[in-house]
Write a structure and sequence with these properties.
The chain is an alpha/beta fold. The protein is built from five helices and nine strands, in the order E-E-E-H-H-E-H-E-H-E-E-E-E-H. A hairpin with a 5-residue loop joins strand 8 and strand 9.
């Protein structure tokens, strides 16, 4: 798989269609007129990903008060997302990008290294998309602690 160019602030956000648990599907156009925090994370039920999802869930009502929606994305299946959300009482929707096309479109499917091995995986990234569908901010190689608060503070 090839790495796509880095998403730039001011660019039109790539369109997407992601299935959620419960049979719903979300597309970029579903968020027209509102801001969207689209956060990509490597894997359900791992410590960093769990803490990130819990932090965004904890702040969901504050984001909603700023007319901002939150959507988490990983390559995990819809069924795995449902178990993950139930286990940790998550309130943010989780989209399944099992094919990896959205990850590639947003440039988060990258070469990673761990313990001397190289592999492809999702780089923890958050994209703030404005009401007009353009990218307002991109956070790459996100450190989970304090991230949801930092994103919230960036929203006007």
């Amino acid at each position: 798989m090839t790495q796509t160019p880095t998403l730039e602030v001011g660019a039109k956000a790539p369109d997407f269609s992601l299935p959620l648990s419960g049979g719903e599907t979300r597309t970029l156009s579903d968020y027209a007129g509102r801001r969207l925090v689209l956060y990509f994370y490597p894997k359900d039920d791992t410590p960093g990903c769990t803490n990130e999802a819990k932090d965004f869930s904890e702040h969901a009502s504050a984001f909603a008060a700023k007319d901002t929606e939150i959507l988490g994305v990983s390559k995990d299946t819809v069924a795995k997302h449902a178990r993950f959300a139930d286990k940790h009482n998550l309130s943010v929707p989780l989209g399944s990008d099992a094919e990896g096309t959205v990850c590639e479109d947003y440039g988060v499917w990258v070469e990673k290294k761990m313990y001397g091995k190289t592999y492809m995986g999702i780089e923890r990234t958050t994209v703030l998309i404005g009401p007009d569908g353009h990218v307002e901010e991109v956070w790459r190689k996100v450190k989970v602690k304090g991230h949801a608060q930092a994103v919230f503070e960036r929203i006007p």
